[in-house]
Amino acid sequence: MNSVPADTSGGRTLIRRLADWASDLELDDAPDRVVAHLRSQLLSQLAAARTGYAHPLGRRIARAYGGPLQPDPARAAVSLAMAAICLDHDDTAYAGHLSHSCVTVPVVYARQLRLDGRQLLTAILAADESAARVTAAATLGPFRGQAAAHTHLAGTVAGRLRALDAPARAWVNGLGLAFSVPPWTLTPGFLSTDAKGFAAAAPIQTGLAACDGALAGLRGPADVLEHPEGFLRRYADVPLPEEAVAGLGTLWHTETLSYKVHPGSAYIGAAVECAVDCAAELRAAGAAPDDIAEVVVAGSLLTSGLDRASRARHIGPNASVAALNFSLPYNVATALLTGALGPADLMPPAVERPERWKLAAKVRTVHDPLLSRAALLSTAPLGQALRRAGEHADAWVRAADERAADLLPPSWLAPETDFRFATKRLGARVTVRLHDGRELTAHRAQALGAVGGGGDHTAPAREKFLRSGGHPEVPHMVAELTDLDANGVARLISLALSGAADEARAEILRGERRRPRRSRRTNSVDTRALEGAYGRLLGSADSVPDHVLAELAVQAGALAASGVLSEVSGTAVDALVASAPRDVLVDLVRRNAAHLLGVLDRMPAGDADLWSRIVEELRDHVERARRSPEGIAEESVERAHDG
């Protein structure tokens, strides 16, 4: 079950294929929507670092390793990453907590190497895509999320070497050296002590050392990922080597980023927001904390599993911030009592208040199969990997939890080929029962800021940074980052982090010369209107009949495969409706629409006029399906009857 498929790439190893692509990656290769995520990711990670440094643990980190603006970039990277991870206020992608290395390393080296704004964003992009892909290849194993410390081996090597514009051979050796000694996270320290910070710090140190060695001529094994005794064999129960290289240049992991509004594990984010909703209802009902008999949190297997692991350790007022971040009872109780949850709730005097622990003792968690089903169907945190695993998915899930195997979507669902409509549905339902028999309930299909929620990530990232006490000019500078020269980037970083660890600005060191950037072609077909139509349709899918969803799914899939927009076979629609539950139909529309849009983005310029007309016609059809689903449904049924 944990064997690695034989190499079918003509002798080029996974690392060589990834290095050849990422070392040559330019910002213009990525769509504008992906570049927009890079800006939000940078701003959000700077905010997470600032809130971390403001915590007592962050101040201890600064005493131990120095601040983020010190002249030594290696120590600055360790300090900055540990500060950002300590409150669990960082952002997540489908595969990995990328930013601790993928943002941190380019940021600290930007000052030394005199990077301009485009070069900084390019380094972050290359790091994101490299780290997320290697992490995804080992997702079906013992380490996910922040515990997957190996994410930062790839993020560090890619982020630094792309900032240096190093050749692909240096990437191959750097990654080979780093992944020859990958970290192995142990649960006791990670879940309940300050050792959690080393899940980012240790691999960053190893990755930087590997870069030094590779640049000096040290050699590492190019096949370390897929070797029979290599990384994937040791770190994955079901190795997914194709995840490391699938869709290079078309499948952008960066746009699977979810942005945290509250500090804490992503598995409890929706529950906290439900508690915030219930807090307002409690105030309106005139209920006091002592009126609460119990609080029941319904969640997916991921939420209930985290709660079980957290409760196995004693958590109270003297607990570490890591333990508090994983404690569903404490965070839900705090949100119920205060109507919010922020960094200040993870430090004295807030964490010492007895009323919080009294209410936390009344919180219990139950498993909701429907929420598990939605989580497993989503892109993140497991859905894409389960689709890639194919027939092996059932056995892996069954070994982890027998209940989850019965909730898996159909095995015939293929992996996504485009992430523009990626989802992360980790939902929750919170019920507050009062002693007088009244009940208050709130439900969230996913956490605020989670990918696929339909909201804009730019404003939340800006608000998060400003709430951290950051300089108000920084969000504007990040928005204009592609126009900033090296001096502007250095000023941005200094403004963003000055005062975060009570240190003065350090002198900016001059780095190596870089090769000039290459120009890239632009897309020949404008798909923005069609993408918007699909997005609006997915946002109102609850009101769209099954036959319409099936027709749209088949239509998008057929057009992507054949390049011909034709009438959909009623037989095919009927067969799909009969074989696929409603949630799968919605997911097929999402996946096939994203795949189609990705195909359209890559159309040759000579076909632009023809495809522009096809896109316009399809957009109109999708809009009609959204606005008048009953009429479209009648047409679909008539075609099915005739077909």
Describe this protein's structure.
- The protein is mostly helical.
- Helix content is 54%, strand content 4%.
- The chain has 30 helices and four strands.
- Strand 3 and strand 4 form a beta hairpin.
- It is globular.
- The C terminus is likely disordered.
Overview in brief:
The chain is 54% helix and 4% strand.
Question: Which properties best describe this structure?
Answer:
single chain, 643 residues, 4-stranded mixed β-sheet, mainly alpha
Mean pLDDT: 90
How far apart, in Å, are the first and last alpha carbons? 43 Å
Radius of gyration: 25 Å
Biggest β-sheet strands, sense, barrel = 4 strands, mixed
User: What overall form do the CA principal axes indicate?
Assistant: globular
Please identify the structural class as seen in this structure: mainly alpha
* Sequence of strands across the biggest β-sheet: 2-1-3-4
Low-confidence stretches: 4-9, 503-521, 639-643
Tell me the total number of β-strands.
4
Number of helices: 30
What amount of the residues lies in strands?
under 5%
Estimate percent helicity. 40-55%
Blueprint of the fold:
Layout: H1 14-22, H2 32-54, H3 56-65, H4 73-85, H5 99-102, H6 104-113, H7 117-137, H8 151-164, H9 168-178, H10 187-192, H11 198-215, H12 231-235, H13 269-284, E1 292-299, H14 301-311, H15 321-326, H16 328-338, H17 354-360, E2 363-367, H18 369-377, H19 383-389, H20 392-400, H21 402-405, E3 428-434, E4 439-444, H22 458-467, H23 473-479, H24 486-497, H25 528-539, H26 546-562, H27 570-579, H28 582-601, H29 608-627, H30 629-642
